[in-house]
């Protein structure tokens, strides 16, 4: 699955259905009572006709306004049908009766869900003149909740039930293995009973369970093609969140670009511990073990797993309620964040990482840097709120999570002092970096307010104050800097000479890096701050042009600068503001005149034109070999120069090379240097 457990296609309209999903006995909901129980004045309750009418009206309402029930008739809504059916099986698993769910996309595009639960009851329903199975398939919100002995915790996002799937399908087939018999029934055209429930034979020995096959109605959905990867991601997430539950998926449709015809099996005995391990798999964990605790409250429970990695991301916190992503967070996340900050501060101060009266408290963001955590709560009546119904509103869960974290995280820290120490150390580093970035930003902002007075001494600024026409040339070496200064168009071109190699930003933490004078000049000149604080709209130039020699050292400094921009001013790269100047590679003489040739192609073209040319072609070693007018003509004049615009991808490659070359992983570095030593051009962008 992808890195984070996001729901697919977030652009679609949010589901509205849960707003009017009533609990069993509510009568004041927006959904009319006749949809559920036939308690209308017009038709007598209990009579078969009344029920038949009721049922059809209910399903008809779903067909008229599908968006109300499944969110949309686009891909999200279509996949929702599968989740709705699978959720019913998951409910059965959560009740302790089902261990395996098999999902198959059939050859003809239908979807089959097989579970080994108890099987939907086949007897007559106490309230309706039909079998319980028929009620589940045709009455809105019937689900598993009837009979008073419903599930305590239900996973169905909208609780709309399989009947909604039936309403939106051109065909549905159900098979139930129960009490030693196999039963079957089918529906067509949006829930019209085709074959009523009958015994078709014996169930396989000792087997109980339910099979639901449905074909999404092409007159309702924009497209009835399921996307296998979307389903795989979802099922993997469900398997992580339901410890020990086996979910299998295969796709039998012919001629797929990816072959999923064999079952992919998801089963995680470690549950959310395995989830955290999975998310940190591509990262370097700060310590080996994954922390875990759980707590059960009054009709609610919480489970939390966590591990820090050495990275700097602070978006690794994922929360769930009843197995559903709460992408907008909510009360469970609030409780965890608050307690995490408190517990870790308490620990850091009492264990000597921080000194009372001397050090500031760590902020939540410092502690969450590099944290991968899963918060999974289960509660009987989840309230999903917010824009996309992705925010958990139940207030009671906040105190449960907070209390659990207060107690159990503190315990975990006591029992795992090495892990605790590593984590606190990292959080302290992060807080220093945050402070340093803030003061760097304050400094650069304050200075740029003073009409250039605070700009670095080495910067020769341009006259224009319009970033759109302003260009900053970052020039390697002071002598080349001098030529560039002389050559430039002073209205639009600023020159910043950079001496030597700027600090390797890969190994240095941002706080150390910001003490480097070359880096300070760079940040001050550009003017948009640095790191998480960087603001592209305050950049003083829309072209930042790297001008360095065409030799190994030049490549090195270019790569360093690109790494810096990629890491600390990514928006500049994304906006396409970073360029590499292309000084000529060759020079030669025609009579007394010195001619510059950009590259081998230019050289070949020149030779074709001047077949008798005997003169040498000198390979240009440094920018210093050109005087100001030559530099202008060949490299800086907007009419004649060629600039290489740096894409995010190119910057990322530079970053990657540097992670290996300059990072802390000595083994990779050795390997890289051994395998690439002969090719110095690998650094060349
Ligand atoms: C209603 C009551 C019971 C189970 C179910 C529904 C049920 C529904 C589905 C849908 C897919 N798989 C399912 N498995 C079970 C309780 C049954 C009992 O008390 O025996």
Descriptive notes:
It is a single chain. The protein contains 20 helices and 23 strands. The chain is α+β, with helices and mostly antiparallel strands and 685 residues long. A hairpin with a 2-residue loop joins strand 11 and strand 12. Mean pLDDT is 83; it is low at 1-46, 144-158, 448-453 and 672-685. Bound molecules: 3-[3-(1H-pyrrolo[2,3-b]pyridin-5-yl)phenyl]propanoic acid. 3-[3-(1H-pyrrolo[2,3-b]pyridin-5-yl)phenyl]propanoic acid binds next to helix 3.
Provide the descriptors you would attach to this structure in a database record.
disordered N terminus, 36% helix, Rossmann fold, single chain, 5-stranded mixed β-sheet, 8-stranded mixed β-sheet, alpha+beta
């Amino acid at each position: 699955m992808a890195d984070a457990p996001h729901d697919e296609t977030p652009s679609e309209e949010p589901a509205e259905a849960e707003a009017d999903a009533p609990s069993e006995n509510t009568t004041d909901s927006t959904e009319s009572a006749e949809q559920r129980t036939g308690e209308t004045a017009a038709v007598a309750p209990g009579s078969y006709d009344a029920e038949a009418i009721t049922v059809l009206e209910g399903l008809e309402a779903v067909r008229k306004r599908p968006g109300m029930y499944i969110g949309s008739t686009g891909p999200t809504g279509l996949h929702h049908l599968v989740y709705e059916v699978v959720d019913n099986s998951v409910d059965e698993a959560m009740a302790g009766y089902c261990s395996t769910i098999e999902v198959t996309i059939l050859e003809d595009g239908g979807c089959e869900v097989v579970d080994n639960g108890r099987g939907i009851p086949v007897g007559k329903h106490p309230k309706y003149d039909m079998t319980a199975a028929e009620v589940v398939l045709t009455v809105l919100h019937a689900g598993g909740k009837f009979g008073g002995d419903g599930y305590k915790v239900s996973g169905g996002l909208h609780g709309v039930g399989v009947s909604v799937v039936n309403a939106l399908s051109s065909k549905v087939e159900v098979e139930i293995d129960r009490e030693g018999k196999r039963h079957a029934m089918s529906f067509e055209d949006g829930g019209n009973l085709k074959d009523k429930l009958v015994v078709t034979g014996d169930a396989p020995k000792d087997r109980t369970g339910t099979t639901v096959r449905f074909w999404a109605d092409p007159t309702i959905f924009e497209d009835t093609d399921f996307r296998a990867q979307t389903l795989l991601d979802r099922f993997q997430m469900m398997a992580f969140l339901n410890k020990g539950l086996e979910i299998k998926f295969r796709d039998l449709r012919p001629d797929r670009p990816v072959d999923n015809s064999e079952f992919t099996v998801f089963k995680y005995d470690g549950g959310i511990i395995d989830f955290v391990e999975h998310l940190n798999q591509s990262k370097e964990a700060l310590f080996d073990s994954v922390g875990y605790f759980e707590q059960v409250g009054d009709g609610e429970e919480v489970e939390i797993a966590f591990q820090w990695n050495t990275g700097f991301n602070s978006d690794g916190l994922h929360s769930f309620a009843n197995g559903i992503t709460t992408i907008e967070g909510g009360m469970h996340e609030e409780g965890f964040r608050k307690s995490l900050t408190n517990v870790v501060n308490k620990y850091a101060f009492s264990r000597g990482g921080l000194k009372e009266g001397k050090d500031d408290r760590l902020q939540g963001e410092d502690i969450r840097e590099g944290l991968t955590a899963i918060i999974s709560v289960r509660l009987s009546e989840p309230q999903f709120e917010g824009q996309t119904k992705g925010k958990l509103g139940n207030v009671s869960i906040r105190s449960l999570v907070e209390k659990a974290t207060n107690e159990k995280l503190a315990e975990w820290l006591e029992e795992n002092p090495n892990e605790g120490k590593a984590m606190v150390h990292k959080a302290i580093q992060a807080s220093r970096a945050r402070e340093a970035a803030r003061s760097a930003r304050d400094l650069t902002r304050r200075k740029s307010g003073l009409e250039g007075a605070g700009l670095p001494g080495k910067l020769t600024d341009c006259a224009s104050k319009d970033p759109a026409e302003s260009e900053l040339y970052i020039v390697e070496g002071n002598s080349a800097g001098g030529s560039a200064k002389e050559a430039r168009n002073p209205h639009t071109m600023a020159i910043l000479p950079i001496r030597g190699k700027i600090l390797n930003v890969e190994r240095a933490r941002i706080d150390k890096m910001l003490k480097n004078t070359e880096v300070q000049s760079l940040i001050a000149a550009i003017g948009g701050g640095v790191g998480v604080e960087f603001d592209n709209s305050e950049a003083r130039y829309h072209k930042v042009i790297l001008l360095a020699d065409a030799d190994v050292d030049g490549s090195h400094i270019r790569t360093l600068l690109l790494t810096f921009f990629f890491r600390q001013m990514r928006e500049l790269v994304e906006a396409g503001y970073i360029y590499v100047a292309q000084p000529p590679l060759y020079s030669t003489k025609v009579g007394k005149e010195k001619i510059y040739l950009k590259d081998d192609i230019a050289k070949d073209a020149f030779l074709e034109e001047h077949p008798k040319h005997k003169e040498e072609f000198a390979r240009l070693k440094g920018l210093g070999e050109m005087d100001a007018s030559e530099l202008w003509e060949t490299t800086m004049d907007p009419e004649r120069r060629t600039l290489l615009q740096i894409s995010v991808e190119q910057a990322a490659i530079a970053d990657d090379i540097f992670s290996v070359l300059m990072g802390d992983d000595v083994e990779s570095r050795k390997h890289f240097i051994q395998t690439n030593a002969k090719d110095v051009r690998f650094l060349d962008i």
